[in-house]
Amino acid sequence: MTSSYSADGLREQSQESAGSLHPDARRSDVVEKISSRKLLFTSRCYLEKAIAKRCRLHKLIRQRFALALKIQQEDFALIFQQSQATVDPVATQRFPDAVFE
Fold this sequence. Notes:
- This protein is mostly helical.
- It has a domain at about 20-85.
- About 70% of the residues lie in helices and about 5% in strands.
- Strand 1 (about 5) and strand 2 form a beta hairpin.
- The longest helix is centred in the middle third of the chain and has 64 residues, at about 25-85.
- The protein starts with a strand and ends in a 7-residue tail after the last helix.
């Protein structure tokens, strides 16, 4: 047990004599707890990064499919307009049985 005296004359005990039978054992427990906390923090950071990366990937996939669908709809609308333009709606209303070739 190591002790010293403070400036006001009171006796102070060192940290080594606080309670453990063997000071090295207590230090190794503290080091182990600190290293396990660091490992837990690091693992949590990697997990959060992986989740964020996956969410970004899914967002990009959704955006890509939405863009493909929009392009497909525009193409269909363009084809539909072109097919409507070739058929004269006034002529088909006046002569529904007529065939235009």
